[in-house]
Design brief:
Blueprint lengths: L6 H22 L1 H4 L6 H6 L26 H7 L1 H10 L4 H17 L1 H10 L4 H17 L1 H13 L7 H9 L3 H9 L4 H18 L1 H10 L3 H18 L1 H11 L5 H18 L1 H9 L5 H14 L4 H9 L4 H18 L1 H13 L4 H14 L1 H15 L1
Helix pairs in contact: 1-12, 1-14, 1-16, 1-18, 4-5, 4-6, 5-6, 6-7, 6-8, 7-8, 8-9, 8-10, 9-10, 10-11, 10-12, 11-12, 12-13, 12-14, 13-14, 14-15, 14-16, 15-16, 16-17, 16-18, 17-18, 18-19, 18-20, 19-20, 20-21, 20-22, 22-23
């Protein structure tokens, strides 16, 4: 029998699960993933080349094979293989990434099977993986059923799971319910979990309640957990209060891990748009593990912009181990940003802190940043208490 998972481990898992949404994000929202068509002068500044300098003369320092035509978008639409050859001649960088996205978007709408053949011919590596995701998203957006059949054929032929999540995300732009149903039918468990997360994230933007109902119906634990984490990351973008209300009702039916994922994702997403409302929701949670997880997630989310508030929330975490980790993380950031304010608050807090183990953890953080201050504070507080 495996050892019980501590609340600290659940909190870490929950915060990492919130990052599932970030992984899905580049596929789900075209504004993040689809750059505007890159102007030739922008591509040149990023390492590729424009056929002309600002003054109109050709740039002799760039090999002709690497020079991008002025109307690269038209080239992608009309002669995609020529555009592909130009991309392969470009050095790595943002310019190449943007150009590949542009090509895959155009090619997916004109001849996706040819685009797929080109992507499959690329050597294994990050560039191929990114191109595959670009194609899968655009194909899923333009012709979702055909894109879904392509992924199924790849899986049945023993191919990797790449593209499954991106197809579901692209499909989810127009019909997230259909994308979710397709994801549920995928034969490969990993691909199914990847696609379920992408579909849930897309669905959460338009109808979080319907997405939540679907997520809870999933039989596969991996798919359900990842989909729930992705939904909890996207739903707060459109209606965090509705997500919070659902989570309050659903808590008893969720596993401990699922609650950790959902709480961390909700609090992180909500804090970005309305930290006061997020704090009010956390305050309303009954004492126990869920409140500890929520408080830790809130502290983590506030640490960069509002370290004093974050420190207060971290000190209020009920679970001792999670409290110590959260306080340490917040304090390290605060001491870098505003050491004077951090030290003043720490001195006041430690004078009222009965937990000796937590005091000593804070002393350790202070010792790494200001040994003299730590020693003076240690003597004052520990000496006064003994």
């Amino acid at each position: 029998m495996s050892a019980p998972i501590s609340l600290k481990e659940k909190a870490i898992a929950g915060l990492l699960a919130a990052a599932v949404f970030v992984g899905v994000l580049i596929y789900v929202w075209p504004d993040h993933h689809r750059s505007a068509p890159t102007a030739p002068d922008q591509i040149e500044s990023q390492g590729a080349a424009s056929p002309q300098r600002a003054g109109g003369a050709a740039n002799p320092g760039i090999p002709p094979a690497q020079r991008m035509p002025e109307d690269f978008a038209a080239l992608c639409a009309q002669r995609p293989r020529e555009a592909a050859a130009l991309i392969l001649a470009m050095p790595e960088g943002d310019g190449r990434t943007s150009a590949t996205q542009q090509l895959m978007d155009a090619w997916a709408r004109s001849d996706p099977n040819a685009a797929a053949g080109w992507v499959e011919s690329l050597p294994a590596g990050p560039f191929r993986d990114d191109a595959l995701a670009d194609l899968a998203f655009s194909w899923g957006d333009a012709s979702p059923e055909a894109a879904g059949d392509w992924i199924l054929a790849r899986l049945r032929a023993g191919g990797d799971i790449g593209g499954a999540g991106a197809v579901a995300a692209g499909w989810g732009q127009s019909d997230p319910a259909a994308a979710a149903a397709w994801a549920s039918r995928l034969p490969d468990r990993k691909a199914r979990a990847e696609a379920a997360a992408a579909a849930a994230a897309a669905w959460g933007q338009s109808d979080g309640a319907a997405a939540a109902k679907w997520v809870q119906s999933l039989d596969d634990p991996a798919s359900r957990t990842r989909a729930l984490a992705a939904l909890a990351g996207s739903w707060p973008e459109s209606d965090p209060a509705a997500m919070a209300g659902w989570l309050n009702r659903a808590m008893p039916s969720l596993s401990a891990d699922e609650r950790a994922f959902a709480v961390a994702s909700l609090v992180q997403g909500w804090t970005e748009s309305d930290p006061a409302a997020a704090a009010e929701w956390v305050n309303g949670q009954p004492p126990g593990d869920d409140r500890s997880l929520a408080s830790a997630a809130l502290a983590d989310s506030l640490a960069d912009e509002h370290p004093a508030d974050a420190f207060g929330w971290a000190m209020g975490v009920e679970d001792p181990e999670l409290q110590g980790d959260t306080v340490e993380g917040v304090l390290e950031l605060w001491l870098e940003d505003d050491p004077a304010a951090a030290k003043e608050s720490v001195a006041a807090a430690l004078a009222q802190q009965p937990d000796k183990a937590l005091r000593y953890r804070i002393y350790d953080v202070l010792y790494r940043t200001d040994p003299a201050f730590r020693d003076a504070l240690f003597e004052k507080i520990e000496g006064a208490g003994e």
